Amino acid sequence: MTDGVDGKQARRTNSSTPLGELFDHGLDSWSCVYFVVTVYSIFGRGPTGVSVFVLYLLLWVVLFSFILSHWEKYNTGILFLPWGYDVSQVTISFVYIVTAVVGVEAWYEPFLFNFLYRDLFTAMIIGCALFVTLPMSLLNFFREALGEYIDGKKESEEDQSKSYKQKEESRLKLSKLLLCGTELVTNIQVAADIREIHRRVEEEEIKRQRIEKLENEVKNSQDKFDEITTKWEEGKRKHIPQDLWEILNTQQLHCAGLIEDKNKLINELQQAICDPLLCALFKELKVKDDQYVKDLKKQSDDICLLLERMEEQVKDIMKSFRQELSHIEKAFELERQELLASNKKKWERALQNHNSKELEYLINRIKKVEDYEKQLNRQRIWDCEEYNMIKIKLEQDVQILEQQLQQMKATYQLNQEKLEYNFQVLKKRDEESTVIKSQQKRKINRLHDVLNNLRLKYAKQVKQFQEENHSLTSEYKRLVLQFKEIQRAMRHFAIIDDEKFREIWLMNEEEAKGLISRAFDVDRIIHIQHLGLPWTEPDFWFLKNVGPISQQQQKTATQIVEEVLKQADEEGLEEGTSESSYLDLPKQISAKTTRKILMLLCDESGFLIESKLLSILLPLEKNECYLLRLDAIFSALGIESEEDLYKLVKFFLEYRAHHLSASQVSPWTQANLERSSLMSALERMSLMSTSGFEKSLMSDWDLEQEQEAESLLEGEEESSVGGEQEEEEAPPSPKLIHPNEVLKVLEAFVMGLRKPRNFRAPVRMTKSKRDNSKDSEYWKALATVIPSSTQNLWDALYTALEKYHLVLTQRAKLLTENNSLEQQNSELQLLLQQYLHSKVGGQERGATVEGG
After folding, report:
1. What is the DSSP string of 419-430?
2. What secondary structure does DSSP assign to 47-86, as a single string?
3. What's the pLDDT at 101?
4. Is residue 514 part of a domain?
5. Residue 358 CB coordination number (10 Å)
6. What angle do the packed helices 241-278 and 281-525 form, to 10 degrees?
7. How far is CA 616 from the centre of its chain?
8. Burial (CB count <10 Å: 0-12, 13-18, 19+), residue 557
9. d(CA 81, CA 98)
10. Of the segments 336-340, 598-602, 631-635, 741-745, which one has the largest average pLDDT value?
11. Are residues 743 and 807 in the same domain?
12. Contact 65, 133 (CB under 8 A)
């Protein structure tokens, strides 16, 4: 309000400046936001208040009116309704005062045809913007475009005072004169600066050339030095004196050349520096002296010129100031004379009007006096009659009052006798009460003694209970420590059991795979060697597994959303196809329902996304934009895993079901049903968050409580089977969830999601339970790796090989018999030969004997 008063005062006194108007309009635009937000804060939000979208539209309506008004002022120079901000501020103050007196609930009362008072305020804002500000601003703009404001501007310019015009003209002339004078004076300094810059540039160029020459020489000398050092390395590898002598001579020549180049550079620099100093020293000094004298002379001339220009400028400014002052004085004189003449004319007209009004007033007064005299006469007659009537009436009243006085005296005498009797009775009762009081005092003393005894007993019992409490707390702490130790031991044993289980698994798996590999080798040998058939090694999934079968890794919420969007696009492109979905969703939740709920959440939870991210998402495609928006919303809500996302979708569907049932109930029970549905969903989420491994480590009491909760949950699940079947028959439609209720559902879901984390339950050891459903299948698959057809083939081959083995054994027996017969035959041959030889020898010996 002070801002508006300041702006009006500045415009009224003609003291406003462009900078002041800029600040004034800036503050007005800044306060536009707070006008709407602060006023509508008393109306509330949600289904009983004003929605965020309506508040957003009203804010844009106010800002549009503000921009339109200033656009009108910029183009036409006229601001329609300049008192609009004052009226709005007074209206807002009135609304606050009314709210403070009657309360916020008054704005929710119906005004007409279920039209509330807060809706009346909203309609007033929109109506003023559409039917007052917009038409008048456009009308003024079109009038300006058609030239209807030209005459008005001329009249307004003529209305301005001559003194003000003369002041403005004088101010402009003097500012131009000061600007030209300042430029004329500073030209001298600018010229001197330019000369100094040129001199410094020349010196920098000479210095740059010298540095460049030195750098080139350094590079050349470094190259030569590197060449010399490389040849020293070559010389170290040679051992012949002649080669060493040649290398030494070449190195000396290179070193001499390098030193000569350095000496040449030094001589050149000395000639460039010393020769001018030695040979032309006096000449250069003379040139520098001449240059110095010229610079001093030039500076003195510049100073003189500067002083002359300054004096001329001062004289011109003084002269122009005097002229403009005289023109302003003349303008003020003319304006004063015009004002005197106009005021004199106004005074004469005012005197004439005053005389005519005085005459008219006198005539009217005479008429009124006559009328008043007539009325006074009539009033006197009426008062006399009324006085007589009142006198008669008062006399009658006096007689009646005297009779009543006599009656009151009689009653007073009777009452006095009654009071004396009552006084005697009360006196006797007082004596009795004193006796009772003394008895009660003695009773109170006895009760005080009893109270003191009870206090002593109470103090003893409190002390005893404190000691018992202390002992019980120490015992509780000891049990807690023992419980923690047991937990740590159980965790240790669980880890050891897992390791042993894995080792045994790996050992059995390795043994089984060894047997399988031997079976495959046997099968390969049978096919290739015995049957002559090609053999291919079978490729089974369970042969690639190493270690226990781990549970499938759970997907993140963002991956599930991406799959839902992809599946929705595929369904839009290929409608009517009967292919199964690649998305693994629960049976009671369809991908279409999930996508609708996620789109509703994305549209209604934009306030959870940062403004920078929204600006980045504009050029992206639709699915990418939805995916990034949902990712930001999930990170804000704390939804990370696939399980959390399914909990959210199921929470929305349960809320919808309760909302449908509540719509068929009376309105006064609907709020209680919604609250009970939200609380039941929260309890169900908190119960589902406990795992089976936690139940095995809880105390007996916790186990009983959880068993009761599980039985209740089973009952609820059995009762909800029919509802689920109905949902499967008729898929849920999230359109029944109103967008205004999304924030309420989200708030309840976040409370339920954070409740198990913040709940201070007993310390329990949590461990993810391994899925052992595929273990039996895995081991059965390892046991049945050889199919029945192959086993039948082996059996047939086994019988054939057994027969072949019998034949071979018979042949082996025959071969052994043959070998034994051959051995006997050879032995017999040897015996025969020995016998024959012995017989021949005997005959020869007999012959010799006979001959001898």
Report:
1. HHHHHHHHHHHH
2. TTS--HHHHHHHHHHHHHHHHHHHHHHHHHS--SSTTHHH
3. 82
4. no
5. 9
6. 140
7. 15
8. buried
9. 26
10. 336-340
11. no
12. yes
Let me know whether 37 and 149 are in one domain.
yes
Cβ–Cβ under 8 Å, residues 698 and 764: yes
pLDDT band of 811, cuts 50, 70, 90: very high
C-alpha distances in Å from residue 130, one per residue of 136, 336, 550, 662: 10, 48, 67, 40
Supply 578's token pair: 């009967």
**pLDDT tens for each residue of 95-124:** 778 878 877 777 777 777 666 777 777 777
Q: Under a CB-based contact definition with an 8 Å cutoff, are residues 329 and 170 in contact?
A: no
Same domain, 148 and 175: no
Distance CA 220, CA 260 (A): 13
Number of domains in the chain: 4
Buried-exposed string 751-773: b where 16+ CB fall within 10 A, e elsewhere: ebbeeeeeeeeeebeebeeeeee
Residue 804: strand, helix, or coil: helix
User: What's the CA gap between 160 and 550, in Å, rounded?
Assistant: 93
Task: Judge whether residue 424 has pLDDT over 50.
Answer: yes
Euclidean distance between CA atoms 9 and 493, whole angstroms: 86
Three-state DSSP at 681 gives helix
Q: Determine whether 678 is exposed, middle or buried from the number of CB atoms within 10 Å of its CB (0-12, 13-18, 19+).
A: buried
The answer to whether residues 637 and 579 touch, using CB atoms and an 8 Å cutoff, is no
Please give the pLDDT value at position 333.
85
Q: Which of 139, 159, 179 is the last residue of a domain?
A: 159
Q: How far apart are CA 676 and CA 592, in angstroms?
A: 28
Q: 433 in a domain, yes or no? A: no
Residue 765 in contact with residue 664, Cβ under 8 Å? no
Note whether 220 and 76 are same-domain residues: no
* Neighbour-count burial for 576-598, b at 16+ CB within 10 Å, e otherwise: eeeeeeeeebeebbbbbbbbbbb
Residue with tokens 């629960």: 586
> What pLDDT shows up at residue 665?
44
Rounded-to-integer distance, Cα 631 and Cα 640, Å: 9
One-letter amino acid at 550 equals S
Average pLDDT over residues 157-182: 72
Q: How far apart are CA 332 and CA 167, in angstroms?
A: 10
List all residues 6 or more positions away from 662 whose beta carbon is below 8 Å from its beta carbon: 669, 670, 673, 674, 677
In a domain, 69, yes or no: yes
Same-domain status, 139 and 264: no
Three-class DSSP labels, 496-528: HHHHHHHHHHHHHHHHHHHHHHHHHHHHHHHHH
The more confidently predicted of residues 845 and 266 is 266
Query: Taking the model in full, what pTM does it have?
Result: 0.28
Amino acid at site 543: L
Asked whether residue 796 falls in the same domain as residue 824, the answer is yes
Whole-angstrom distance, CA of residue 62 vs CA of residue 31? 11
Domain that holds residue 183: 168-279
* Mean pLDDT score, 486-514: 87
Whether 325 is in a domain gets the answer no
Write down which residue in 123, 142, 159 finishes a domain.
Answer: 159
Which candidate, 30, 25, 31, 29, places its Cα nearest to that of 7? 25
Side-chain half-sphere CA neighbours of 69 within 13 A: 21
What CA–CA distance (Å, rounded) separates 673 from 659? 8
Length of the chain: 852
For residue 704, the model assigns a pLDDT of: 42
620: its two tokens: 């992206």
pLDDT at residue 167, rounded to an integer? 76
Tokens of 544: 């690639």
Give yes or no: residues 729 and 595 share one domain: yes
Sign of the torsion formed by the C-alpha atoms of 610, 615, 616 and 617 = positive
Q: In this structure, are 626 and 681 located in the same domain?
A: yes
* Backbone Cα Rg of the chain: 60
Virtual torsion, Cα 810, 813, 817, 820, nearest 10 deg: 160
Distances, alpha carbon 97 to alpha carbons 31, 104, 122, 802, in Å: 20, 11, 18, 113
CA distance 28 to 73: 15
